[in-house]
Design a protein that fits this description.
mainly alpha; single chain
Length: 354
């Protein structure tokens, strides 16, 4: 027997042809990601159902009779009250109300508002653009501000600028948003001492303006609520970015990059920041969900006609279908964004989900 025959596997040729397929690891990685994604989507579905159940039963603990509230204190006969209850299905057993609510919610029907006598989904669609204008503008500003200042603070760790940035961020992050909003209204809307009232006290527009003048009017009303949200929210992004970047500063690959002669700003921008952005990316998705949900206290303080103000108005009745619909919408936005963050994270860091 020759040497070549001795090393040749039966039924095949020797050498590279006998190696396992190169695509097998990719297939395994794809399967692991699909399994990971299915688990996250399934968890999101369970969370949405829990929100559906919680929202239905929780708001029925609010004191007050919504039917009597709808009459506005006018004297109404028992027959009229019974007719109202039949109209809105409040005369049905609680379990039947729950099953009807769940069945309609799955088809996108969130019921009819008691006070507006209009579909809840229509009221949400009307107020959503106003909320997105306010919270979306603030989201872009406080995310950019937090990332820039957090990066600078981490790279100059322990210096005066780092201590000032961190101290201010912690202070503003702990301030209640409604208190800061009221303070800004007193100082910059009403005016204190030499400071004149420069901005409107609330609302979204003065009315009567058209074209570019209307855009400026809305922007004028937008200033104080946006400043309130940015001041309160940017600190969280700053602190998360700073902490993540500090964990990267002592890594060996940064030492190697400096040893190759790269400038310090290039080391930071090209190597440290991209690897430190993973926790910040998760926070961005979470804040994006909150952006869709709106900010109830800030919109209420500034009388902003968005989802937050609508939720506060519905609670005061209580308008159960509107409250339940808004609660489900808010929670769904946060859950969906959290799920998207979980699905994107393995694409940024292959170690996750394996």
């Amino acid at each position: 027997m020759t040497t070549d025959a001795a090393i040749t596997p039966p039924g095949g040729s020797a050498g590279p042809a006998a190696a396992p397929p190169a695509r097998a690891p990719r297939a395994r990685g794809r399967t692991a990601y699909l399994r990971y994604g299915a688990g996250k989507v399934g968890g999101a579905a369970v969370s949405l159902f829990a929100v559906l159940v919680t929202g239905f039963f929780l708001f029925r603990l609010i004191p007050g009779d919504p039917v009597k509230t709808m009459t506005g204190g006018r004297p109404v006969s028992a027959e009229q009250l019974a007719a109202y209850r039949r109209e809105f299905g409040l005369d049905l057993p609680l379990w039947q109300q729950f099953t009807d609510y769940c069945g309609k919610a799955l088809t996108g029907d969130l019921g009819t508002s008691y006070q507006f006598r209009a579909p809840v989904i229509d009221r949400i669609a009307e107020a959503l653009p106003n909320t997105l204008l306010l919270t979306g503008t603030a989201f872009v500003l406080y995310t950019a501000l937090g990332i820039v200042l957090g990066t600078r603070s981490a790279w100059r760790h322990g210096r005066l600028g780092d201590r000032l940035n961190t101290g201010l961020a912690l202070t503003l992050y702990s301030v209640p948003s409604f208190w800061l909003g009221l303070l800004l209204i007193i100082v910059f809307s009403v005016g204190v001492g030499p400071v004149p009232g420069l901005f409107p006290t609330g609302g979204m527009e003065s009315g009567g303006e058209t074209g570019f003048a209307h855009v400026l009017d809305v922007a004028h009303h937008l200033v104080l609520p946006v400043v309130t949200l940015v001041a309160v929210e940017y600190g969280q992004t700053l602190l998360v970015t700073r902490s993540a970047l500090l964990d990267e500063t002592g890594s060996d690959y940064l030492t190697t990059a400096r040893a190759k002669g790269l400038r310090d700003d290039l080391v930071r921008r090209r190597h440290a920041v991209p690897n430190a952005m993973l926790p910040t990316m998760t926070l961005i998705f979470v804040n994006l969900g909150r952006t869709v949900a709106g900010v109830i206290l800030v919109e209420t303080v500034f009388s902003w006609p968005g989802l937050g103000g609508l939720f506060y108005q519905a609670l005061s009745v209580p308008d159960l279908p509107l409250v339940q619909g808004l609660f489900l919408f808010f929670a769904s936005a946060v859950i969906i964004m959290n799920t998207l963050a979980d699905l994107v994270y393995p694409l940024l860091d292959p170690r996750v989900g394996r």
